[in-house]
Amino acid sequence: MWRRRNDKESIAGFRARSYLRQLELQAYSSLVSALLVQGELTESRKLTLQTLCSQLHISEERHKAEIRRALCDTDLKKASEILRGSDACFLWGLESKHQVPSQPVAVPQNAVVTATRHIVAAAVASQEITAEDVARNSMPRRPPPGHR
Description:
- The protein has 148 residues and is mainly α.
- Helix content is 68%, strand content 0%.
- The radius of gyration is 29 Å and the shape is elongated.
- The protein starts with a helix and ends in a 12-residue tail after the last helix.
């Protein structure tokens, strides 16, 4: 049977460890934000981050995620551009293995899109609709069959 004293001690220990981890993550996040606004990612800043990663128990994945978070923060990016210029974030993007700027998302290609394009092309070819209608994204309304 467990003694109640041990339960309280284990809960208190768990809370203390959780609180410590929270402080470690907040400290690392704040430092990444500050260094990003200060400017380029130099070798000395990389070394500082590596040292802190080991001291604060930050994994490589978490390190990259924090840099991506900071790069996506518009306030941090604006402050960095005002203080250091528009190219200040380039090496930070390389460190996170995240391309800066992000590439636009392509229009999805599926069977419905392909079929729609074929139908519109056939309608234009048979002169049921004009290319201007397609460009305006408006099709002429026709009454349903059997309607006068």
